[in-house]
Amino acid sequence: MSLTSILQTISKEYTPLSDKTIAHWASLIKQRTYPKGYILVKEGQYSDMLYYIVKGAIKAYYLKDGKNVTDWFAFEGDFMCAITSYFLQVPSPHYIETLEEVHLLSITREEMNLLCDNYHDFERLGRISCTKTMLQLQQRIVSLQFETAQQRYENLLERFPVITQRASLRDIASFLGITQETLSRIRANTRI
């Protein structure tokens, strides 16, 4: 799939973009493929990159007492960045790692700002993308506060039906805020 086709797909998914906007955006984008297990961002690193996942899966996690605490997954069609570092221009508290081979589009914060300043339709894309992320975060908070572990797992499978083939059970358990043993019991009792 060509870069222009990918950007047109994003335009259809999020908000209509003019051909001029797409052409300027395409001139700034870098395309890269990374292998499984590649660390895109390390804790303590400054990151001004925004990624769009064309193919593959990524996780964001903290290291707490030597253990990975997964707090976000992103898949095809998602935007992803080290959010604290990207927006506040501070060292990232996160690691961002590929879960499988990924094909990414990347653009810097400065280039994003340039596009937002020059194209109202691109600014709308940024706003819609941020809104989508905020709503997912709100849903995650509500889930952690009010749902049982079983409900959280079932809802995760509804949103990402093949997540168990793409992420480790350790990462899924961490994301759900439960132990691997609890996840194993839930999986044994779940017929989805």
Automatic annotation (TrEMBL):
Top-level taxon in the UniProt lineage: Bacteria
Residues in Cyclic nucleotide-binding domain copies: 13-115
Q: Which organism is it from?
A: Aquimarina hainanensis
List the InterPro entries.
cNMP-bd_dom (IPR000595), cNMP-bd_dom_sf (IPR018490), Env_Response_Regulators (IPR050397), RmlC-like_jellyroll (IPR014710)
Protein name in UniProt: Crp/Fnr family transcriptional regulator
Q: What stretch or stretches form a coiled coil here?
A: none
Pfam families (alphabetical): cNMP_binding
